[in-house]
Design a protein that fits this description.
The protein is α+β, with helices and mostly antiparallel strands and about 200 residues long. The chain has one domain: Helix Hairpins. Helix content is about 70%, strand content about 15%. It is built from 3 helices and 2 strands. It has a two-stranded antiparallel sheet with strand order 1-2. Strand 1 and strand 2 form a beta hairpin. The longest helix is centred in the last third of the chain and has 82 residues.
Length: about 200
């Protein structure tokens, strides 16, 4: 801890600093709560996303054996190309995060007469799985950014609560005791001086 000056101006400086910390602390605590809520929301959405993917995969498993037929997997990977993932930006509790919007696919033409009857369903199902996975990645990125901000905010809250505010309180108390002692000593000296003046007169 840095050595403080035991003066009235330092007392004012310490009081002002403590007021500032006390004024800013509730804002930080509120931000911390919002970030914690957003983290829980991200976790819930990730679980929902995983459940949705599992459901689609279970639906697919009933006719997944068909994918094993000659050239089916190759056909699907040739037909479906991921063109891009569309995201937006949002500000969540002061953090700029990506928000999933949509997935763009390039679907190559395929001959309905020379391919299996279920190929349309397979293309739709694969698109759905890819879209769910893309959304999952965006939510994970959101969570990572929010978690990073939460860590920083928690450190600031702890710094204010456990270091800065107690430090200011101690400094104020120390300065007040010193100034009080100085005032008491000054009163004692003035009484002694007065007495001496009276004795001389």
């Amino acid at each position: 801890m840095a050595k403080i000056k035991l003066t009235k101006s330092e007392l004012k400086t310490q009081r002002d600093a403590m007021k500032q910390f006390m004024r800013y602390l509730p804002t930080l605590q509120l931000k911390k709560q919002q970030l914690q809520m957003e983290m829980r929301d991200c976790d819930n959405r990730l679980r929902q996303n995983e459940a949705a993917e599992k459901e689609v995969r279970e639906h697919l498993s009933s006719w997944m054996a068909l994918f094993g037929t000659e050239g089916t997997v190759e056909l699907l990977t040739d037909v479906i190309k991921l063109e891009g993932v569309d995201t937006d930006r949002a500000n969540i509790a002061g953090v700029d995060v990506p928000v999933f919007k949509d997935v763009r696919f390039l679907i190559d033409e395929y001959n309905l007469f020379s391919n299996e009857l279920w190929i349309d369903d397979a293309v739709d199902a694969v698109k759905k799985v890819i879209a769910i996975k893309a959304e999952h990645q965006v939510i994970k990125e959101q969570r990572m950014l929010i978690e990073k901000e939460l860590r920083t905010t928690t450190q600031r809250v702890n710094l204010f609560e456990k270091v800065k505010i107690p430090e200011c309180k101690d400094n104020i108390r120390t300065i007040q005791i010193y100034l009080g002692d100085q005032q008491t000593a000054a009163v004692g000296r003035s009484k002694i001086a007065k007495r001496k003046m009276e004795d001389v007169a």
